[in-house]
Amino acid sequence: MIQQTGILPPLVMTMGEPAGIGGEIALKAWLDRATGVPPFCLLDDPARLGTLAAGLGWAVPIRPIADLTEVATCWPDALPVLPIALAVEVVPGRPDPRNAPAVLRSIDRAVALVRDGEAAAVVTNPIHKQALYEIGFRHPGHTEYLAELAGPGHHPTMMLACPGLRVVPVTIHMALRQAVEVLDTEAIVVAGRATAAGLIRDFGIPDPRLAVAGLNPHAGEGGAFGREEIDIVAPAVRRLVAEGIKAVGPVPADTLFHAAARSRYDAVICLYHDQALIPLKTIDFDRGVNITLGLPFVRTSPDHGTAFDIAGTGIASCTSLVAALEAAAQMAHMRRLATGRPVA
């Protein structure tokens, strides 16, 4: 594990939807600090965190700080928090749009801190898009908003990772029928390029190997089950290879994810959401991490949602959040080694 002290600035963590489990898993992550959790600063409302910790019976001292230079001395004894005031009291499981502006301020501040070199990476807690939509949020999700903050010229790509598997879906949150309709060669090539570049820059893999999944059963069986592999996927693979990227495919998806197959590649380019997420969550549901490649800053997130049904009960696991913190620290370290400059 990468140790941050003396190597990287601290990580910054956003509040996410305050009525969800973000606050309590952040508290749990701090309670687990003796296991080597990378130091982080939470951008949140100190009063609501103190109330949450007290209500759960957890001994987590909350320490409001003025800037990130205080994290190193604060971390062993208290959870450092850069204050972001909420508008109204939080009721677990019941999101209130009046608190949505604070959610966005938390993200904005976290990105600014990383881009200014004061923080090493952004770790985002899950948001509730409906509450944000009610205040005029116009982005499909977190990633698209982060892309806007990054500025023009960046092409964010979602990677999901757990120990032993990395997957990149070409199409994400859309109906399966629509995903098939919009799939094209260019989208696969863009995803493949971003994945190869991310594996080199953020994971230290000098010559990454990509497997590109087929869409249809048996990768189309030579056209018997559809021509997408012939007309869309294979041309994308040929273009990636022509650009010097080690890529193979289309490979039947039902033979891509067993242990022996996974040893032959560094990431799989999947063609739709569930083709990527089902194997990842089956292999290691608790330690999945959402990573955004292609940004000028490192961003990771736990691979789960707000979990309103259990918010405030204290039973939510922080395992995925801790994995996201560890991945963020490791990626930020690799970027610093590659560039010789501060992250961002």
Q: Can you describe what's shown?
A:
By secondary structure, the chain is of the alpha/beta class. The protein folds into two domains: 1-152 and 305-344, 3-Layer(aba) Sandwich (Isopropylmalate Dehydrogenase); 164-283, Isopropylmalate Dehydrogenase, CATH 3.40.718.10. Helix content is 38%, strand content 16%. The protein is built from twelve helices and twelve strands. The model is unreliable at 1-6 (pLDDT under 50).
CATH class of the largest domain: Alpha Beta
Q: Rough shape? A: globular
Q: Structural class from helices and strands?
A: alpha/beta
Spatial separation of the terminal alpha carbons: 21 Å
CATH architectural grouping of the largest domain:
3-Layer(aba) Sandwich
- When the domains are counted, the total is 2
Using the coordinates shown, work out and report the CATH topology of the largest domain.
Answer: Isopropylmalate Dehydrogenase
The amount of beta strand, in percent, is 15-25%
Count of strand segments: 12
Order of H and E elements = EHEHEHEHEHHEEHHEHEHEHEEH
User: Mean of the pLDDT scores?
Assistant: 93
CATH superfamily of the largest domain: Isopropylmalate Dehydrogenase
Strand arrangement across the biggest beta sheet: 3-4-2-1-5-12-11-6-7-10-8-9
Number of helices: 12
- Helical content stands at 25-40%
